[in-house]
Amino acid sequence: MGRDVRLWRLLGILVAALALTTPALAGAAQQGGAKKVNYDAVYTASNDPSGNSVIVFTRAANGTLTQRKVVATGGKGIASTAPFGFPIVDSSGSINLTPDGKLLFVVNAGDNSVSSFLVTASGPKLVSHVPSHGKLPISLTSSGDLLYVVNETSQNIFGWKFSSTGKLTPLAGSNRKLTAVTPKGKKDKVGVTAGIGFANNGGVVVVTQRGLPRTYGEIDTFVISKSGAAGPSQAVATPGIPNPFGFSASGKQIFVSNAGFVATPSGAMPNPMDPTQFNGTAATYNVSSSGKLKLVKNTSTNGRAACWLVVTKNGRWALAANTLSDSVPNTFTGKGGVSVMSIGHGGKMTLHGQGDLGGPGFPSDEALSSNDRYLYAVDPFIMGGPSHIDVFKLGSNGSITHIQTTPSTLPNGVSGAGAF
Hints:
Helix content: under 10%
Shape: globular
Radius of gyration: 24 Å
Number of helices: 1
Strand content: 35-45%
Low-confidence stretches: 10-32
Structural class: mainly beta
Order of helices and strands: HEEEEEEEEEEEEEEEEEEEEEEEEEEEEE
Distance between the termini: 69 Å
């Protein structure tokens, strides 16, 4: 009889324990069934004046892309931008993706706004759609919990703080005007803005200005305070680098592409067949914590209209997009569309090799996969017609191999690139 009582008591304890653990087990099962977010993706934007959208591609393990979905930004694209009136956001960095791939930021050049997205299992989810606090936002950059935009027409920068979900909060003291100086340090006319980015490990914001038809461009720096606010502009002329354009930062240096000399002013169509114009280079600058710039070296990319440039995370390689290919006879063919520059001692760049596109095109904004094994070059058909993305495989030795051209079904004005 005593034994039976003990058995019944033990059974009661087991039943009670099961009752207590069942909700936890159910919760764990439910949590385990939640969709996992796949951050391996590539993003670009339609830049449609009737309604801008993010175009999402999934990235396979071999680097190839498959278009997944299209998500509205809540803003509008723009029909054309300076300096040549092409139907794209003619800048570097009109899309920005945080290093962890979780937050995405996009400019809406047509209605002077910025959109932020949280990347979820079902794709980017719109979180904020806010004014850019200026006219014609063209480029974005993020560092830590700070986001900055540069507005081309109003010639100013503006910043926000963002939450872990991407909610944007305006940042006091972030609205600063661009400035420009001559090579002799006298006040000058602000050029055509090209891009914005953080440098010196997030302590400085940098803005590039194209100088056409001058023989020098401009680079502005803004020192960022502990609160995230920007100090006043410090402008430096860039003699011999007439049109500084896209750039990437690595440590206390920036690596800047230069589209080359252009004889016509903004608003006039250039002559892409003139061999004295559009000879691209790539320059290295040291950036101090006080925002001072020092040129290290300027090197030919052996390409024409070197407008976009990205750097691998290990700081060994820079990849410049040559929009007009590698020579006048090959203009528009895509031959030599990407130059690979090795980065040596002191940040000095040397031409290492070149990669051809999959066919004719105008390579523009670039993005590297999170593992630096693949390069994605958005290829808008700027003269009218459908667009695509060119995909390259990168070797640790600096080799570059074209592996995919996505279907030419993207909008004519497709702009910006982000990848993870």
